[in-house]
Structure formats: structure tokens, C-alpha cells
Amino acid sequence: MPDLVMLVERTGPVLGFLLALTIVAEIADRAGVFDIAGHWCARVAHGGVLRLWLLVVALATLATIVLSLDTTAVLLTPVVLAIAKVAGLERRVFALTTVWLANTASLLLPVSNLTNLLALHHVSRLHQQGGPLGGPSYLGLMWRPAIAAVLATVVVTWLLHRRTLRGRFETTEPAHQHDPVLVRVSALVCIALGPLFVSGITPVIPAAVAAVVLLAVLAWRDREGFSTLHLPWLTILAVVVLFVLVDIAGRAGLTALLLQVAGRGSGVGDLLRLAAASAGLANLGNNLPSYLALEPVAGSAHRIAAVLVGVNAGSIVTPWGSVATLLWAGRCRRADAPVNWGVHLWQSAVVAVACVLTATVAIVL
Q1: DSSP 34-98
Q2: Over the stretch 231-256, which tens digit does the pLDDT of each residue have?
């Protein structure tokens, strides 16, 4: 029973955050925030394909950091695909850029990925036990590997698709008309969440307040949209099941087995071994249960960072390695841009290796 209570205490805020942020993202999408942002990128690019791609990189990175990887995968993907189609560009490179950054850019803030929220509990405890000056905070621990992972993704993606990213395109049509009040409030709420998430406040609190505010505005401005709002109950149920199964497996001997695979040290070689093991486990199963399984063998702050690098940036190879990748693939199918999984697997593997290597080394710099 104490183990169950502890599990609920850890996972309750994570699930509440998932629900609240999903509401924020869905309402922002209904308001047209992502549609307007995508068309703004196309106009600012002034017909340059490389400039447009770099703006998509910036938009995907920002959306992932502030509103989580699932938001980028679900809401930004159709906008990016639509912009590329209207401009007459190869959609695959823009789609791949979006899903890769949805995962690899999800290291910087606790709210960027559910695995980070789980790690926040462990990092905070290490921070409090770190002596007179304390151990590193989450942001202090992860900002270097986060930047390294994003830069590695951008560089490798450009190298893989540099020929496609040349040339020019015609300026796209303007964004659709949207309710100006709902757009402004949604945009302001999304912008405000960024500094609130790094303020030290428990992330679920500002996320919940933001969700309540946007629900009230949506009910006022769009009653039909309010009544048809979809909440991720099945996703939350699946996450709960994963939490319980991993907790049971850990007590049944999984933790001891993973300790033999992941090692114990905190040198660069040890961290690379741990990050590689984390990435491999995430691609075999899924990044969320993989983090929970590996946390007991992590121990130090640097080893926790290596696990996060592996399960976040390294989980992009298989479709099931990250829920965001599955959601992204569904959006691509609905936009009549099905994923070529053969190309996806080998290119994602190249990006994953580059990200895990550079981000893990950056942990100890």
C-alpha cells in the first residue's frame, strides 16, 4: 500500500498536467493560433525554402519546449504539411523535422515531456540533498544537453535533406479568418505559460489555471466548440496502466536486470552506455515506461540526465518509441502524406545517434 500511495503522489500531478495542457493545446488549435503562426512563417520566409524550414524549426522547438512534444506532433504537424503543400514543396522533410524536434527538443523544461515531469521529482530530491549549495536544478542540469540535441537535429536534418531545402517558393495564401478575441486570449495564455513553467511553481498549477481560463473563453465565444471538445481520457488510462505495470515489473526483478545492462559509473563512457541503453529500451517499448524502469538504476543527477537524453531524444527510431511519433503518423495519414517507414527508420536512427552522442557529452561539459 505505501508503494501504491507513493506512485499516486508522483503520477497524479503528471496526469493532471497532461489533461490541462491537452485542453490548452486543443483550444489554441481551435482558436487558430497554430494556423496563424504557420502562415506567418511562410510570409516571413519571403519565398526562401531554407528560411521557411528554419522558421518551422524555430516554431516546432518553441512549441515543444513550452507546450510539450505531443502538442507539436498533433497540432503543428497538419499546419506545417498544409503550408508545404500550398507552397508546392516536398512535405516529407517538413514532416520529419516536426516529429524529430517534437522529441529531441523536449529536454529543456519539465513540461516539455511527461518523462521530464517524472524526473523532476527525483532531480528536486537530489537538489535538496546536494549540500550547502544544493545539487543542480532541473534547468541547470538539462540546458546544455537540450541545446546540443536541438542543434544536432537541425544539422543532421539539413545534411540529409540539403538538396530539398534549396530554391524558392511562391508566397502562400493568408490564414483563415478566426475569432480575434479567442485568438488573442489563447496566444497570450500560451506565451504566459513559458515563464510560469520555469518560475519554480509546480507545473500542473499554471497549466490548470490556463485550461480553466481558456475553457471559460471558449464557452463564451464558441459554445459549439466547447461542447465538442475532446479530452484524452484513453491516453490518460493508458499512461496509468503503464505506470502500474512498470512498478510491478521493477519489484519483480526488472531493476536488477537493467542495472547489469546500464552500469553504475558517471564518466562520459558510463553515461553514453546508460543513454544508449535508455534509447534502446525506449525504442523496444516506449519512452515513458522505459524512464520509470531506468530511474532506479540512475542514482546521480548526471545519470538521470543521461536517461532522459536516451528516452527523449533517442526514442525516435520506431513508431512506438514515443506516443508523439504515433500521433504524428496519424496526422500525416489524415493529411494524405503517409509515412515511408523504411526511410523514416534509417534517417531517424542517424538523427537519434547524433542527438544521443552530442547531448550526453554535453551533460558533463
Answers
A1: HHHHHHHHHHHTTTBHHHHHHHHHHHHHHHHHHH-HHHIIIIIHHHHHHHHHHTT--HHHHHHHH
A2: 767 767 777 777 677 667 666 666 66
